[in-house]
Amino acid sequence: MSNKCLLLCEIDIWLGCKQGNVGLIFTKGDLKEVREEISKYKVGAPARVGLVAPVDVVVPPGNTGLDPSQTAFFQVLNIPTKINKGTVEIVTPVELINKGDKVGSSEAALLAKLGIRPFSYGLVVSSVYDNGSVFSPEVLDLTEDDLIGKFAAGVSMVASLSLAVSFPTLAAAPHMFVNAYKNVLAVAVTSEYSYPQAEIVKEYLKDPSKFAVAAAPVVAAKSGGGATAAKVEEKKDEPEEESDDDFVCSLFD
């Protein structure tokens, strides 16, 4: 009985999405792949009078195959044409209908004569039902990187809130430990109490020149350690050459 109640509750969830001309697709496969497969099946449709254009309609240039008597029809729609080999040819591409505009009788007649079916109809996924939840199909576009980024942002917000209200949470624990260690270190520096890690800090505070000594090797490595080493080697080589010359001269002496 309980299983039937749960099943009826789940059915009520997706029955609320079943409004209008809606079909149901049952699948055990990957939902994103199923949606991509569904979107491939589209049928071209002609432009009917009074229909709101879902996309921009552009008439391409080229030979229309219509006889020269149809030139006036193109002039009404401000479409530049020329006569080529006894037929009407469109010179430049023309944006005939803008997206959101209603299709007029002249536009519909021209597209019908040219054999252009500018619109297409197909199935569109309106909602997805999975494991008792109904969600928008845009969720299927999320990648693993998007999910990781959203999760990291959520953890950061939890940590910030925990630190602000001084409430311990797993997300804020590392920051709390660091802040606590800073407090312990501050007490050790300002008092006689000490421990090995605090001794290093106290030595630096007593003799600030140690900061410069510690930073010197790093700066040298970044700014020109190779050139300095080369100069040192050259200086070392020069005395050796001088000593050889002195030795040769002493032989002749």
How would you concisely characterize the structure shown here?
The chain has helices at 2-15, 31-39, 71-76, 105-114, 144-165, 173-190, 196-206, 209-223, 225-252; strands at residues 42-45, 57-59, 62-63, 81-84, 87-90, 94-97, 119-122, 128-130, 133-135. It is of the alpha+beta class and 253 residues long.
Give an overview of the whole structure.
The protein has helices spanning 2-15, 31-39, 71-76, 105-114, 144-165, 173-190, 196-206, 209-223, 225-252; strands at residues 42-45, 57-59, 62-63, 81-84, 87-90, 94-97, 119-122, 128-130, 133-135. The chain has 253 residues and is of the alpha+beta class. It contains nine helices and nine strands. Helix content is 53%, strand content 12%. Strand 4 (81-84) and strand 5 form a beta hairpin. Residues 239-253 have low confidence and may be disordered. The protein starts with a helix and ends with a helix. The radius of gyration is 40 Å and the shape is elongated. The chain has a three-stranded antiparallel beta sheet. A two-stranded antiparallel ribbon has the order 1-7. It has a two-stranded antiparallel ribbon with strand order 2-6. It has three domains: 2-122, Ribosomal protein L10, N-terminal fragment, domain II (Molybdopterin biosynthesis moea protein, domain 2), CATH 3.90.105.20; 142-206, no CATH class; 209-252.
> Secondary-structure element sequence?
HHEEEHEEEHEEEHHHHH
- The rough form would be described as elongated
**Mean pLDDT over all positions:** 77
Helix content: 40-55%
Output the keywords:
253 residues, 3 domains, two-stranded antiparallel ribbon, elongated, Ribosomal_uL10-like_sf, Ribosomal_uL10-like_insert_sf, large ribosomal subunit rRNA binding
